[in-house]
Amino acid sequence: MRIIIAGCGKVGQALAMTLTDSGHEVTVIDKNQDAMLTVTNSADVIGYQGDCTSIKTQLDAGIKKADLLIAVAGDDEINMLACLIARKTGHTHTIARIRRPQYTDEIGYIREELGLSMAINPERVAAAEMARLIQIPSALEVDTFAKGRVSLIGIRIPDDSVLDNLQIKNLSKKVTSNALICVTEHEGEIIIPNGDTVLSAGDKMSVTLPLPEVSDFLNKIGIRAKKIKSVMIAGGGTTGFYLAQKLISHKINVKIIEKDSERCEELAGLLPKAMIICGDATEKNLLLQESVDSMDAVCCLMHQDEANILLSLFLDKLNPKIKVITRVHRNSYEDLVTELPVGNIISTKAITTDYIAGYVRSMQNSIGSEVEALYQIMNNKVEALELAVGQDFEYAGTELKDLDIIDNTLICCINRQGTIIRPGGRDSLEIGDSVVVVTTNKGLNSIHEIVRK
């Protein structure tokens, strides 16, 4: 596909690299020459210095032949205008990043009036992901499929767990559950498991199961986490606001520490059920005064990565039982912090890139089935996809044991008209199903591609 990216910031750069790696022809536009050159030097793309809201710039960049324009500039209005011009000039599909809370309730109207194919609010999506992690405190990552009916949960097998030294084919004898182990990581090696795979304490694994059954499964394998009732949010920015809204709606007590006094007053009006503290969340005395050590969870959402990381390290030393979520922006820190005790790591850049890449994946598919959801798991080494089974799927009705599934790929669950099926060899895929698949094969676009011809 021919794709134009308007905006060469962190998200624009990440998108350019992801989309070129997937074989797309990418052009980037930015007013700032240095920003544009940073992207062109890091990815195989064509760069144009100019205003993405200029018809001439878009024409020069090839909008009339483009399949998609993605607007991720720093300003919402610029993104919306760039998409409108692209839609009218090139009749192309458009995606806009729209971040401001005042547009949240109007996003449906904006999409319809501007003809947007997709609008994404990264901060709101990040807040939703953090809320899921708080609901399942022991999870390393939580993704949802089948309109929330199925969860894909990343966990680490604890010491003395019934799973230690257990072959997966014997799981049902030890643990009565609908859980299906989809991926494991043992000593850095990613494995798409089969029945003979042996689990070990300390392994990471991703498991699919219905959300209501998560707590019971975790208890059975030796992970006992109390329900989170109190959360401190360090940083009262947009993401912190969205997260507080979500947590309050789940009857969780929220305390926000923000050092900007004007922002504190604004938050007090917007979130009357939250406690707003005006102060610096990196000050030890303030944290102790506000009983940070007795909090069930702390979300580090300050503007500076260094402040978030240092706070997370302090919390780990103060009370390792606190659920900690740390937001990191800078690319150079992402690999570093994975080795540090900073809890769950959240990157709005990565979340935005995953969402848009998933949409692009479904767009480029021309044979009927679609990528309905796409997540990168296990530190981006594995893709988890939800694929729709279209009318032209030639293996519909064939038992799974008779399908020659490609290597390093596993069908994790089947959603059949709202009924969730844990797949076995005698089950089959039927037209109209949606199927959750995990694979180390990057770039799959349809259900057809998981079956070897």
Name the overall outline. globular
Report mean pLDDT, rounded to a whole number.
90
Can you summarize the main beta sheet? Answer: 6 strands, parallel
Strand order in the largest sheet: 3-2-1-4-5-6
Describe the model.
The structure is a single chain. By secondary structure, this protein is α/β, with parallel strands linked by helices. The protein has three domains: 2-120, NAD(P)-binding Rossmann-like Domain (Rossmann fold), CATH 3.40.50.720; 230-346, NAD(P)-binding Rossmann-like Domain (Rossmann fold, 3-Layer(aba) Sandwich), CATH 3.40.50.720; 365-450, Regulator of K+ conductance, C-terminal domain (Alpha-Beta Plaits, 2-Layer Sandwich). The chain contains 14 helices and 24 strands.
Give a quick set of tags describing it.
453 residues; alpha/beta; Rossmann fold; Alpha-Beta Plaits; 6-stranded parallel beta sheet; 14 helices; 31% helix; globular
